[in-house]
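This part of the workshop introduces the protein records we will be handling. A record pairs a protein's sequence with a compact description of its fold. Comparing a sequence with its tokens is the quickest way to learn the format. To make this concrete, we reproduce a full record directly below:
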Amino acid sequence: QQPILLIPILILDFVQLISELTGNQDILKKLEAELIKQALEGTNGVVAKAAKVLGMTASTLKKRISEYEIQ
């Protein structure tokens, strides 16, 4: 993968670690939702491309979009 694509993945990994250590899952959900919004904006709403940027499958991204009620 290209280094720039690893940044969202590394951020999510870091925040997940912090949320596990503190027991606060809300922070992970808020950050993940924001990263998803930014990835979708950066890929003009193309789910497959945004999923690749985020390091997840398109089906997982679709579930998260629905879960976080992202338009």
In short: The first helix runs from residue 3 to 22. The chain has a mean pLDDT of 84. Helices lie at 3-22, 25-42, 47-54, 58-67. The two ends are 28 Å apart (CA to CA).
